[in-house]
């Protein structure tokens, strides 16, 4: 008889119990995280800064990681955000950029999520202005600012100076200069959106985010393609098509392409394409 | 001077044999893996994340010395009577304090050096893994300066802890004082900045203001030695900033050690 | 014993104040004695009599409140006189993770030892019987071994004055004999030795003069010759030594001063 037998038995029992509770704990923590994510945002930035001592960088990284996990889970589960949650997210990103003002990820995240998803363009622009101030070596804040003004606010006049400033910063891609001109010349938001999304996609490291961007890009490309065909119809017939059916008859289209988001494309009377799915970023276009 | 070095070497040896370094090595390995894995989860600032973690780990590793070794520096020596073996060897109390501090300096430098090497490995692996694109703003001289200034900050803090341990024999009290010093040293500047421009509606009483300005001259401003964030973004501090920090750090350390010697000379060793 | 004394205490007083309390405890009062060159001076006394305090004041670890202490004609805090002193603390302890060799090397460095350090290390270790554990860390040592190691450390630099605080405690009979032998040897070489102890028989065997302390005061200083033939009171057991009888009587206050 081994004398340690009871101890081994107790060990097996205890281990079983704690291993079994791990998934439950995970569930509880997930719920708690939703509550906490709002609370973290409520702590004044000065306090967070002071309490991070000399570990401000790591604290900012950790908060960013939590934010991304929270949002990533929502996207993964196809859950809608409620208005309050967008506000939490905004406050959280503001906080992170207060702890480490040069940290680019939260600004980029604000652009992808707040601006594109929630339509919080003003908030996104404010963060970008902060980014531009603290990252003078980076062309991206001005680039995004220019894009937001052009694409979402329909203000090419204000967009152009931002893009020119972005183009002047060393390391900016060459096409920026041309883009600034093209933005103001053609005024085609969809084409600008495609260029922009492609650029974002190039930078995305998170698979959930890049998947998400890719889908959006695919949809925009379809819309762009449709818009070009509408333009071709106009050139050929000297008027806008009334429906997709008319374009199929004219041989420009074989069928109405499906919306990757599950909605339906609709041809508006002004020649623009609209979709019934919630493709935010397109919606503002029809709010005129 | 020879005697100071002799004591420094003795306490350094004793520190090494306490397997401090084994712990540090494991910590370093952990650091490399974590920083590489974690930085992969981010979108853009991968270099910044890697460097954040590496520099934070260097700080944390270096902080082990003041918090765990310096705290019971004298208390342990007195409690275990080892101090008599040293002081009966024609060694003055000043030499003893300086020698002990020297030993801690050697330990800190060794720990920071080991962690810096592993940080370099972590950055290299991360660069290899995620591509040069994310490491455009990697600025090695800025990192080296940040680590050196960090080291100076650690030495300032260690000197203050040595001072506390010369004033009190209780290692518990010394630990409390060390924690307080650390917290004050890292928040003071933030508080003073807050007071300079208080948000509307907040009134700062002159008493609080005076106390804080007094604290500024008494406690070490440890936050000033924290250049980690800037270095992570590839920014180099200016030359005169470095010179200011050097003079402040060296001056403060010397003052703290002198005070420590004065207190220690007045003490009865039971 | 004629030229200037190696140690001189004149009216030394010391009291300790405990933290946060106003009460102070008198450890020494009006302590005066001298120890001449080449003398073996033993201090005996009950627990808390002030023996260790006396030795620590002598070495400058504790500062006296009043009176004058000189050692080799200098004040005790003068580090240069320590060059000539070998000190064995009570319940000595060395750095746990270092070897005795490490300690002796440090001793050589700290005392500006001239000559071959390695030869001296072997010599001293052989003397205290620790040559077989020279590379073992101190934490592996038994209490007696640590005592021997500390003794080696005290003897290393061939001091003129040995200050030993309870040198026999924790030692087996062999070890005690070793300490006695070492003290005799140093004595023969003309060194001065001051030590305190509880073990009266050892003190009786080796001392030139014996001081008896009680409650921080010096009660008596006697020589073994003076003690010879000291009458043992009938109340005490038969095998009581003269020193023991004298010591007990002194403490009881029945007899004081010179026997």
Can you walk through the features of this model?
- The complex is a heterotrimer of chains A (288), B (270) and C (259).
- By secondary structure, chain A is an all-alpha fold.
- Chain A has helices spanning 5-42, 45-51, 56-76, 83-99, 104-115, 121-134, 140-151, 156-168, 175-186, 189-203, 207-237, 244-249, and strands at 265-267, 273-275.
- Among the domains of chain A are: 10-123, no CATH class; 237-287, no CATH class.
- Chain A is built from twelve helices and two strands; from the N terminus they run ααααααααααααββ.
- In chain A, helix 5 (104-115) runs antiparallel to helix 6 (121-134).
- The N and C termini of chain A lie far apart (86 Å).
- Chain B is mostly helical.
- Chain B has one domain (2-265).
- In chain B, 48% of the residues are buried.
- The mean pLDDT of chain B is 86.
- Chain C is an alpha/beta fold and 259 residues long.
- A six-stranded mixed β-sheet of chain C has the order 5-6-7-3-8-9, sandwiched between helices. In chain C, strands 2-1-4 form a three-stranded antiparallel β-sheet.
- In chain C, helix 4 crosses helix 5 (143-155).
- The longest helix of chain C has 16 residues, at 173-188.
- The radius of gyration of chain C is 19 Å and the shape is globular.
- Chains in contact: A-B, B-C.
- The A-B interface holds A 46, 49-51, 53-58, 60-61, 64-65, 68, 100, 102-105, 108-109, 135, 137, 171, 203-206, 209 and B 38, 40-46, 48-49, 51-53, 55-56, 59-60, 130, 136-137, 182-183, 186-187, 190-191, 194, 222-223, 226, 228-230, 232-233.
Radius of gyration of chain B: 20 Å
Helix and strand sequence of chain C: EEEHEHEHHHEHEHEEHH
Give the terminus-to-terminus CA distance of chain B. 27 Å
**What would the average pLDDT of chain B be, to the nearest integer?**
86
Strand content of chain B: under 5%
Percent of residues in beta strands of chain C:
15-25%
Mean pLDDT of chain C: 85
With helices defined by DSSP (H or I, 4 residues minimum), what is the helix count of chain C? Answer: 9
Annotation, overall tally of beta strands of chain C: 9
Given helix and strand content, the structural type of chain B is: mainly alpha
The number of distinct β-strands of chain B equals: 0
Shape of chain C: globular
Low-confidence stretches of chain C: 254-259
Shape of chain B: globular
Number of helices of chain B: 11
What is the number of independent domains of chain B?
A: 1
Helix content of chain C: 25-40%
């Amino acid at each position: 008889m081994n004398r340690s037998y009871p101890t081994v038995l107790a060990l097996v029992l205890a281990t079983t119990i704690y291993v079994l509770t791990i998934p439950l704990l995970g569930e509880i923590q997930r719920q708690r995280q939703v509550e906490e994510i709002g609370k973290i945002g409520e702590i004044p930035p000065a306090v967070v800064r002071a309490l991070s001592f000399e570990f401000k960088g790591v604290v900012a990284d950790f908060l960013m990681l939590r934010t991304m996990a929270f949002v990533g889970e929502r996207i993964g589960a196809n859950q809608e955000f409620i208005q309050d949650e967008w506000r939490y997210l905004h406050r959280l990103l503001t906080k992170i950029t207060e702890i480490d003002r040069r940290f680019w990820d939260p600004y980029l995240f604000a652009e992808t999520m707040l601006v594109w998803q929630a339509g919080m363009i003003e908030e996104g622009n404010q963060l970008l202005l902060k980014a531009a101030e603290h990252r003078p070596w980076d062309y991206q804040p001005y680039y995004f600012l220019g894009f937001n003004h052009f694409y979402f606010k329909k203000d090419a006049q204000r967009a152009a100076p931002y893009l020119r400033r972005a183009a002047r910063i060393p390391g900016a891609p060459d096409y920026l200069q041309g883009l600034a001109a093209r933005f103001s010349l053609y005024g085609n938001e969809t084409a600008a959106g495609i260029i922009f999304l492609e650029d974002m996609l190039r930078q995305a490291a998170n698979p959930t985010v890049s998947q998400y961007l890719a889908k959006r890009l695919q949809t925009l490309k379809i819309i762009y393609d449709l818009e070009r065909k509408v333009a071709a119809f106009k050139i050929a017939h000297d008027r806008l098509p009334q429906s997709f059916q008319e374009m199929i008859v004219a041989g420009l289209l074989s069928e109405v392409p499906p919306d990757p988001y599950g909605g339906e494309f609709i041809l508006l009377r002004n020649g623009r394409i609209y979709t019934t799915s919630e493709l935010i970023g397109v919606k503002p276009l029809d709010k005129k | 001077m020879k005697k100071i070095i002799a004591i420094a070497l003795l306490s350094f040896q004793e520190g090494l044999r306490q397997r401090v370094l084994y712990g540090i090595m494991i910590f370093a390995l952990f650091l490399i893996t974590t920083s590489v894995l974690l930085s992969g989860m981010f979108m853009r600032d991968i270099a910044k994340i890697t460097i954040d973690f590496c520099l934070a780990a260097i700080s944390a590793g270096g902080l082990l010395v003041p918090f765990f070794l310096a705290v019971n520096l004298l208390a342990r020596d007195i409690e275990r009577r080892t101090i008599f073996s040293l002081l009966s060897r024609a060694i003055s109390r000043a030499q003893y304090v300086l020698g002990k501090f020297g030993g801690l300096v050697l330990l800190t430098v060794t720990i920071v050096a080991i962690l810096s090497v592993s940080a370099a490995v972590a950055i290299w692996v991360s660069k290899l893994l995620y591509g040069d694109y994310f490491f455009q703003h990697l600025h090695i001289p800025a990192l080296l300066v940040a680590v050196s200034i960090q080291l100076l900050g650690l030495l300032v803090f260690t000197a203050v802890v040595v001072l506390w341990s010369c004033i009190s024999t209780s290692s518990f009290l010394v630990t409390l004082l060390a924690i307080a010093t650390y917290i004050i040293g890292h928040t003071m500047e933030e508080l003073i900045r807050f007071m300079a421009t208080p948000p509307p509606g907040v009134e700062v009483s002159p008493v609080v203001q005076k106390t804080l300005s007094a604290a500024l001259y008494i406690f070490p401003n440890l936050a000033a030695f924290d250049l980690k964030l800037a270095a992570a973004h590839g920014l180099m501090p200016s030359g005169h900033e470095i010179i200011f920090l050097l003079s402040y750090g060296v001056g403060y350390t010397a003052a703290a050690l002198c005070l420590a010697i004065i207190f220690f000379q007045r003490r009865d060793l039971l | 014993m004629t030229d200037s004394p190696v140690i001189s205490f004149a009216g030394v007083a010391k009291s300790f104040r405990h933290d946060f309390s106003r009460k102070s405890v008198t450890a020494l009062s009006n302590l005066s004695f001298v120890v001449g060159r080449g003398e073996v001076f033993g201090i005996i006394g009950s627990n808390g009599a002030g023996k260790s305090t006396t030795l620590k004041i002598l070495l400058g670890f504790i500062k006296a409140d009043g009176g004058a202490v000189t050692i080799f004609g200098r004040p005790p805090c003068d580090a240069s006189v320590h060059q000539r002193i070998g000190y064995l603390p009570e319940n000595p302890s060395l750095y746990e993770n270092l070897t005795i060799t490490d300690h002796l090397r440090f001793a050589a460095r700290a005392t500006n030892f001239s000559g071959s350090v390695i030869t001296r290390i072997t010599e001293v270790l052989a003397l205290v019987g620790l040559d077989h554990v020279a590379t073992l860390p101190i934490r592996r040592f038994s209490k007696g071994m640590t005592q021997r190691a500390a003794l080696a450390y005290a003897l290393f630099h061939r001091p003129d004055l040995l200050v030993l605080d309870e040198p026999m405690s924790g030692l087996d009979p062999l070890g005690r004999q070793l300490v006695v032998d070492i003290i005799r040897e140093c004595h023969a070489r003309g060194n001065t030795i001051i030590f305190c102890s509880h073990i009266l028989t050892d003190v009786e065997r080796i001392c030139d003069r014996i001081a008896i302390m009680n409650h921080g005061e010096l009660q008596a200083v006697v020589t073994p010759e003076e003690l010879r033939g000291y009458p043992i009171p009938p109340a005490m057991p038969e095998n009581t030594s003269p020193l023991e009888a004298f010591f007990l009587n002194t403490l009881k206050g029945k007899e004081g001063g010179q026997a």
